[in-house]
């Protein structure tokens, strides 16, 4: 039976693109090495039609499939389970830029294109594709769309969802929906595009997309501000939005302990202004006019903020190297915390206005629960998104800490998120990792609708089964 | 049976809010007076719970219902049919602003709030709610959401969809989904919000929403430019996007005949620069800094465009009165064409880059089909959205023109839209008016998915049945 099915796959995509032997860990293991599954096969179609043929073979034989892009997901949503029954449908051979339309400010691409390649393709056309995140060198746009990835420029340009105008999708029946619209307005029925975006491969397989492009800014400046409190950081955000408008393309907050870890493990990065202040903020200003204009706007903003007291001290990068240096500090926080040892990671979002109280209360509850616990708190404050990570007390046994506390810490953090009307997954998704948590933190009505939609579009439950939608 | 059902409604919302007698034309007739239906009753609940009770009564008795806001829709999607079986569920008593959160830049409101009241509530809080369209004095935000309304600032702020962060919805089963998130990032499952937005009341009844707000700009300037061709207008758009970035909040194109009609019927409006040029463009620049800065940016843009040849002549409004005057000309086009007589209206969108060729080809095809036909072509060029309206030849019998040509003209215009990868409904929706056209202009796969989704969420087909989704 399996052999007959595999032969059908081989006929569809070529025998060389149906992998069943050898080391398949690149496809079977998730990026954070939380899980190692076992695939019936790794199938690598080379065209949309081949994807459709594979899905039809799966539909007819009832074989479950897991769509996979760059396999950089953080919630175990793109690797097979341990049953050996699931195939991995790898999209990475679909890697062409189909076309760029500068007058329409759009780019139509295959799902398997690596994000960084798309940034470069846009730049070569004199335009900006603003999606940017840590995994950009290996993640694919199909994966970005399937998980509605966020990143560092959401404040200005939105999540991946907001950057997408149209999709090409292979349905659970193996039909092709050609929805590659380059339209900014289209009210001819239900919003199928946004239903597939963020569904993590459980409703259809994204094979292509039309994405928005933007003019390249004339200048981009970066500033670093020390703030006396999270309340002050929120106030600074409001001032920056007022002064810079859409020029504000980045607003990252970093707690003192997060920066202390960078300072400890990467002293050569020379973290500025963090010793005396509980939080620092990294601001980015993208200007359509000139560097001079950007600098003037930044200076007026920071003067106002200093007078107002919501900024204690600040520096503006003098040149691109300094700007990269400041961003590099921000981006080194995850690595520095890994150097420090295991920790309990969260990717939460909250209404921006409620973040200061959330953190004050939750910090205190965690200290009470685990005296000496250390918080690596940082994230995209402009989007209300915090990576609120919990590190063991200094010198403690980290493995024991995780074993003893992970479940309780998650419950405490997520219960607080619920109290403050937040989300337990801001930008990473649900996958297999958090699907068990969903019934506690999402309404029964919402989950009921999700189940109904899943059943409507994938009645045989062959697309990434068990992920995202609680059973 | 009917009486028993009506008594249940009276018990749910109060007898005074179940209208069955007298003149119900305000609810039964659509705004453009294309259709006059007959309602079993007009039901006016005063709270979300009352909406849920009404929907439960409908679900249990199998009574179809038509949700209705300000009844300003243009595609016969919010009025009952002639059967006398459908109730109108009017949301206008749900008209409270539930709260404004300035630090989070959000506003949570009842679905029945009139759009203009929300603009004013935001402004009183020192903030901007940027949704703006002709019917804003009477349309409701629930209707805007149900139809994903567009308007004049989509270029910068997006359609209603892009302005919404969360919804409260009564499902077809009469349950309440409380999805009033003030979150800019939330990846905890399927995007239910965007599925309801634009579904025109066929999947659920929107009762509340959390909408995005923005800082008020420091200055808003308006310019009027005559352009030698549509190609030049597209080029000017690209230059304006490059120079002004997100400052570009309006880019409206108006054909010479459209402006000639305004000049003919409202000579006091003094339309500038239209006699020698085939198209004029209205540009709006919203600046976070100052009027002086806005004026400088506009002047640099227009100088570049004049040198480049894509602008032939231009004026910048000197003050707010002049700016309003220019906008008033643009907004008077629909009235001027009504003064001129009946015409065949279209609300199409295309990739911006393809608009010049689309218009050249389609203009010629129409002239060939109906010699002397006149085109009232205007719209939101920045969004690729044209109101490409077809007026009878001068002096002809207009009723006869419509009778003889409407169907053929629609087919010609829409077939061309299909050839150019456009949409037959950019911002007005499908409703009952265009649902019959959908199978010709939307893919079978897409319609199949729409039908499956409708069946999944509204299995008894009680919510606005027959609208949007072809049967």
TrEMBL record, chains A, B:
Keywords: FAD, Flavoprotein
Cofactor: FAD
GO MF assignments: catalytic activity; FAD binding
Plastid keyword on record: no
Domain of life of the organism encoding this protein: Bacteria
Limits of the FAD-binding PCMH-type domain: 35-216
Similarity-based family: Belongs to the FAD-binding oxidoreductase/transferase type 4 family.
Name recorded for this polypeptide: FAD-binding oxidoreductase
Organism: Ramlibacter cellulosilyticus
The organism's taxonomic lineage, starting at the top: Bacteria, Pseudomonadati, Pseudomonadota, Betaproteobacteria, Burkholderiales
């Amino acid at each position: 039976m399996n052999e007959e099915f595999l032969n059908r796959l081989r006929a569809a995509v070529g025998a060389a693109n149906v992998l069943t032997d050898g080391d398949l860990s690149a496809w079977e293991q998730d990026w954070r090495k939380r899980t190692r599954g076992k695939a019936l096969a790794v199938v690598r179609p080379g065209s949309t039609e081949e994807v459709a043929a594979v899905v039809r073979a799966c539909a007819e034989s009832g074989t479950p499939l897991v769509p996979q892009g760059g396999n950089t997901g953080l919630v175990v949503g793109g690797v097979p389970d341990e049953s050996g029954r699931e195939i991995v449908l790898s999209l990475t051979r679909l890697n062409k830029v189909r076309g760029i339309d500068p007058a329409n400010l759009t780019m139509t691409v295959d799902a398997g294109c690596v994000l960084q390649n798309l940034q470069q393709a846009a730049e070569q056309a004199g335009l900006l594709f603003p999606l940017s995140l840590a995994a950009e060198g290996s993640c694919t746009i199909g994966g970005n769309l399937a998980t509605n990835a966020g990143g560092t420029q959401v404040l200005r340009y939105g999540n991946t969802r907001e950057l997408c105008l149209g999709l090409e999708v292979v349905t659970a029946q193996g039909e092709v929906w050609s929805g590659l619209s380059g339209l900014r307005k289209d009210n001819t029925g239900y919003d199928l595009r946004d239903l597939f975006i963020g569904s993590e491969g459980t409703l259809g397989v994204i094979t292509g997309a039309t994405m928005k492009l933007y003019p390249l800014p004339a200048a981009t400046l970066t500033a670093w501000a020390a703030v006396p409190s999270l309340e002050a950081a929120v106030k600074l955000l409001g001032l920056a939005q007022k002064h810079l408008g859409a020029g504000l393309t980045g607003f990252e907050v970093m707690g003192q302990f997060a920066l202390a870890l960078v300072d400890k493990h990467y002293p050569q990065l020379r973290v500025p202004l963090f010793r005396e202040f509980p939080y620092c903020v990294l601001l980015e200003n993208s200007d359509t006019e000139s560097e001079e204009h950007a600098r003037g706007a930044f200076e007026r903003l920071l003067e106002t903020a200093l007078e107002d007291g919501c900024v204690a001290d600040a520096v503006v990068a003098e040149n691109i190297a300094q700007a990269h240096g400041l961003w590099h500090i921000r981006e080194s926080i995850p690595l520095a915390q890994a150097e420090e040892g295991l920790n309990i990671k969260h990717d939460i979002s909250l209404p921006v206005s409620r973040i200061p109280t959330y953190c004050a209360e939750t910090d205190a509850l965690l200290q009470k629960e685990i005296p000496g616990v250390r918080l690596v708190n940082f994230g995209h404050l402009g989007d209300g998104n915090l990576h609120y990570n919990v590190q063991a007390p200094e010198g403690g046994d980290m493995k024991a800490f995780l074993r003893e506390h992970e479940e309780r810490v998650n419950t405490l953090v997520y219960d607080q998120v619920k109290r403050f009307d937040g989300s337990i997954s801001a930008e990473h998704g649900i996958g297999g990792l958090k699907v068990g948590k969903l019934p506690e933190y999402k309404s029964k009505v919402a989950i009921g609708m999700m189940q109904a939609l899943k059943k409507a579009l994938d009645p045989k439950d062959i697309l990434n089964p068990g992920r995202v939608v609680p059973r």
